[in-house]
Amino acid sequence: MPLTRYSAEAFGVLTICLVALLILLGLVCIAYSFYLRSRVLRQGFIQLTYFSGPWIIRITFILFAIWWGFGEIIRLNFLRRQGRVLNALNLKWQENVCKCYIVSNLGFAEPCLFLTLVFLLRAPLQSMDTGILSRKWNGKMAGYILLYCFPVFVLQLILILIGPALHKDRRDLPSYFTRTVARGMPNSDDIALCAYPLLNTILLGLFATILTAYLFWLGRQILKLVINKGLQKRVYTLILSVTTFLPLRVLLLGLSVLSTPEQFLFEALAFSAFVVLLCCAGLCICILVYCPVADCLALGNLHDLEARRRVVLDDQNDTVSLIANQSHLEGSVGISPERNSDASTKRGSISFRTYARDGTSTGAFVELSLFSPSRDVSPPGSPPLLGWPMRPSADGYGQ
């Protein structure tokens, strides 16, 4: 069933609004990450370096999501109508825009987006000396992401370039296997409409299958190390959402060949595939970027609270000492700073179990103490602090 003009514009406007919300969320999280990084360096929270270490890769993940969002906007038929931005281009250039969209989003943005997700999840399984604490970790991971994405990008590009020749040589091959562009309806504007070639979708599906299987295995390894129930829920949510949404998007794109652009079925399937990946990207940004930064800033606020409490305790110590000296009471009870500093309640710290490379527990915990514990740091019954697990290095560092 052909879409009415208002229905087509509604899909386009809604897509642009959703992408704008994703970009806004991404920019807020980027600013949040920069704020955490500057605070860690300025106030000397060296113990939080492990949790703020992958800040460049987190920002890269957001940038890939924004890139993908812009590509989805470029694809819209809404922008090709009379008087719109892409209508100024001739048909040839509009066709080239559709081909660039397939290569850019299906061959680069989406593979890089989920490869970045994999490396962020894999980071806690690495040893300390070669993992997040390494200064070269962010650069190495960025290089690996581009390296692993390169074969998918090249294959998508080859399919786009050889598509027309393949269709001419194989007459029995249906056109939707290689079709990237469809012409508008006879009574509509003379424009080029973007479609999803089935061969390119199949290639994306193979990539999604491999990635989904690896994420299942990776999630099991992470859940063995996590000792915090709140963090376990985050990992469960992340793994289940990615392994569900990514195959679902590929399925919806594959089903879109049953119709043609400007038909309701095609536009509904394409929009549903867009919403699926948008929700997945937004959820990943919240769990992988916002939540870790919020946890670290909460620990930093506890550090400031402890510093203020120490000032009050020092004043109380001075007052008690002065009264004791004036009254010459040798048996008076004073408040000892050493006793306060030695009280080991382990509040204001993050602890997690260390594992050897063969997966066996060493029985030790790695603790990142932010300040000397005090029994008044946090009220009883307060929620536990969150932390990522970390493996020790080969030479026994962290044990």
Fold blueprint:
Elements: H1 5-43, H2 49-52, H3 55-75, H4 91-122, H5 137-169, E1 181-183, E2 192-194, H6 198-225, H7 229-255, H8 264-327, H9 337-342, E3 349-355, E4 361-369
Antiparallel strand pairs: 1-2, 3-4
Helix pairs in contact: 1-3, 1-8, 3-4, 3-8, 4-5, 4-6, 5-6, 6-7, 7-8
SS-based class: mainly alpha
Beta-strand proportion: 5-15%
Count of helical regions: 9
What is the alpha-carbon Rg in Å? 28 Å
Distance between the termini: 66 Å
Keywords:
single chain; 399 residues; mainly alpha; two-stranded antiparallel sheet; two-stranded antiparallel ribbon; 9 helices; 64% helix; 6% strand; globular; disordered C terminus
Structural notes for this entry:
With 399 residues, this protein is mainly alpha-helical. It is 64% helix and 6% strand. The chain has nine helices and four strands, in the order H-H-H-H-H-E-E-H-H-H-H-E-E. It has helices at residues 5-43, 49-52, 55-75, 91-122, 137-169, 198-225, 229-255, 264-327, 337-342; strands at residues 181-183, 192-194, 349-355, 361-369. The chain has a two-stranded antiparallel ribbon. The chain has a two-stranded antiparallel sheet with strand order 3-4. Strand 3 and strand 4 (361-369) form a beta hairpin. Helix 6 packs antiparallel against helix 7 (229-255). 35% of the residues are buried. Mean pLDDT is 75; it is low at 304-309, 326-357 and 361-399.
